[in-house]
Amino acid sequence: MQPLKSHGRYGYSAITRRPDYRWPGGKRLAVYLGFNLEHFEFGSGLGATLGPKSPEPDVLNYSWRDYGNRVGAWRCLDLFDSLKLPAGVILNTALYDYCPELIEACVKRGDELIGHGHTNSERQRELSEANERSLLLSCKERIQRESKTQVAGWLSPWISESRLTPDLLAETGYRYTLNWCHDDQPVKFTTRSGKPLWSIPYPQELNDIPMIVARQMDASDFADMIVDNFDEMLRQSAEQPLVMGIALHPYLVGQPYRLRHLRRALKHLKAKGKIWFTTPGKICDFVSPP
User: Fold this and answer.
1) Triad 24, 29, 35: Cα angle to 5°
2) How many CB atoms lie within 10 A of CB 184?
């Protein structure tokens, strides 16, 4: 029997057998909000669905997602403000054409801006190497031009990678990726150029799309899941430093009845006072100073 094919990005390392360290302030658990702001093409392309997808134009599902940018995101930002929580804003650059004031509000809060493609109507994997490189560069450059902020991180639309995506990210100046959910600590990737690229943990379990849309979990259960995950990771972090991300989409958690439960969960986390509430970029800066 031959060994299985490998991605070659990292080797195996047991979480219990790694060097020990502490986050800033002596904290053991780093927590961040991955706040996804997305825009979709009307009448074509991909998108999460509330009900069965209809022939285009699929007005029901398009307008449901658009609620996130028009209402839900603003309610979420009010919640984050009330708890004084930073966010990692994972954004489609199409939002600069549609609702630039939403991105401006995030910049004024001091949130980190993270590249997330131009639109979530498309999958990155379907691009040629040249076009994928162009996408990475154009998104990075537009965010920096429009918002006057440096971009360090990337999350592919639909977590869709080519075999070259980590290489292209490093070559186009990104410092970290959120695509891989394989660990609870930052992991350094190998790239073809030798330029460093870090993988910062991004959740697929503690994520409202797979939990609420795919598994049909209600708002109360999702909030309980955040609390339970946090309490257990806080306990585990006595043994090693850990990262806990919470992936949120405002067309889901920005719905009023879900927002109440999200508020309850975030208040629980904030009340503990034993954690480093941060952003993915600051986690990357800690493990690999720029």
Assistant:
1) 95
2) 19
Is residue 179 a contact partner of residue 156, using CB atoms and an 8 Å limit? Answer: yes
Q: Which residues neighbour 74 within 8 Å (Cβ) at sequence distance 6 or greater? A: 102, 105, 254
Kindly report the pTM of this predicted structure. Answer: 0.97
Contact assessment for residue 162 and residue 125, using Cβ atoms and an 8 Å cutoff: yes
Alpha carbon of residue 136 to chain centroid: 16
Answer whether residue 36 shows pLDDT above 90: yes
pLDDT digits (tens, 9 = 90+) for 134-149: 999 999 999 999 999 9
In the chain, which ranges are E strands? 29-37, 88-91, 112-115, 153-154, 176-177, 187-189, 197-199, 242-248, 275-278
> What does the pLDDT look like over 157-212, one tens digit per residue?
999 999 999 999 999 999 999 999 999 999 999 999 999 999 999 999 999 999 99
Burial of 270 (0-12, 13-18, 19+ CB in 10 A): middle
Residue 267 to residue 27: CA distance in whole angstroms: 18
pLDDT in tens, 64-89: 999 999 999 999 999 999 999 999 99
